[in-house]
Amino acid sequence: MEIEALRSFVAFVDTGSFTRAAMQTYKTQSAVSMQMKRLEQELGKTLFVKEGRNLVLSTEGQRFGLYAKQLLQLHDETVTTIKQTQVGAQLHLGCPDDYAESVLPRIVALLHGHIKQLDLQITCASSQKLRIMLDSGQLDAAIVTRLPESDEGYLLQTSKGVWVSASGSNLSDADPLPIALFQKDCKFHIAALDGLMKQDRHYQLLACSSSAAALNAIVAKNLAISAMAECSVSAPLNIIDSGTLPPLPVVAVALVISAKAYSPINAELAKQIAQAYQGYLE
Question: Where along the chain do its domains lie?
C-alpha cells in the first residue's frame, strides 16, 4: 500500500475536499483521484459515495480512515525518529491575532511539553489565510476559527461572540454607533454588520484591522466598540451587557494540522494537545 496514497486519503478525511487534499499533498486533483482508485482496487472496497454533487466517505471509507491515520502516523514517527538530529524539530504554527493572548500561550506550552528541543516559528494571520498556508505547506499546524458544527481539526473550545467597550463607556447608545472590527474575513465582522443593518441601526465603521492590539487600543480609548470572541476579551475591555445590540454567533476554536510529510505534529499529538487544552478550561 502506497504511503503517499494513504497521505492523500487522510488529507481528504481531514478536509472533506479533494481540492484541499490535492493542495496539501502537492498533487493535481486527477493524481489524487487515481491514487484513490488504486486504493479501492487494492482493498476491494468502495471508499467514496456520492452525496448530492459531492463525494463523501462510504461506511467502509470511514472505517479505513481510522486505520489509514494510524498507519500514516506510525510511518511518519518512524522516519522522523530515525532522521532526528540534536538540533530538534522545527514547527511552523499559525494563529489568528485575536487568540494570541488567550489561546496561543497554552498551545505553545503544550507543544514544548511534548516535543523536546522544539524550534517554534509562529505566524499570525486570519483563519482564512492560515488555511491557505496550511494547504501550501507553509505551516505544520494552525489555530483557526470554525463553525461549531464543523469537524475540522481538533476542537479546543467554543466561544460566544460578544460586544466590547471601554470601561464605563456609553458608546453602545450612540447614534450613529461607532464600531471597529476585524477584517471582512472575520465571522464577527459579517455578523455585526448584518445584525446592525437588520435592526436599521445607524453605525460608523471607524476602522478595520487584522491586529487585535490595534482594535483593543481603539476600543480602550473609547473611540468605538467592537465584536469578538469572548475568549479573546482582556482588560481593560468590558463586555457590553445590552439587549439593544444584535446577537453574535458562537464559534469554535480548533487546532488543524497539515497533511505534509514528516511534520513534528501528527494527528495523535494534536488530539492529545486538544484534550490537554480542554482540561485547562474545566
Answer: 3-83, 88-282
| Contact in structure between 273 and 39 (CB atoms under 8 Å) | no
257: cell is 494540522
The CATH class given to the 88-282 domain equals: alpha beta
pLDDT given for residue 79 in this prediction: 72
Residues of the chain below pLDDT 70: 26, 80-88, 261-262
Helix (H) or strand (E) holding 277: helix 267-281
Predicted confidence at residue 107, as pLDDT, reads 97
From CA 144, how far away is CA 127, in angstroms rounded?
5
Question: In a 3-state reduction of DSSP, which class is residue 158?
Answer: strand
pTM of the full predicted structure? 0.72
Per-position b or e across 71-105, b if 16+ CB within 10 A of its CB: ebeeebeeeeeeeeeeeebebbbbbbbbbbebbbe
Residue pair 132/256 in contact by the 8 Å Cβ criterion = no
Query: What are the CA-CA distances from residue 34 to residues 4, 13, 39, 41, 232 (Å)?
Result: 12, 16, 9, 11, 44
Q: Span 3-83: which CATH code?
A: 1.10.10.10
Is the Cβ–Cβ distance between 74 and 3 less than 8 Å? no
Q: What is the pLDDT of residues 101-155, one digit of tens each?
A: 999 999 999 999 888 888 999 999 999 999 999 988 899 999 999 888 888 889 9
> What is the spatial distance between Cα 262 and Cα 107, in angstroms, rounded to a whole number?
20
Q: Is 49 helix (H, G, I), strand (E, B) or coil?
A: strand
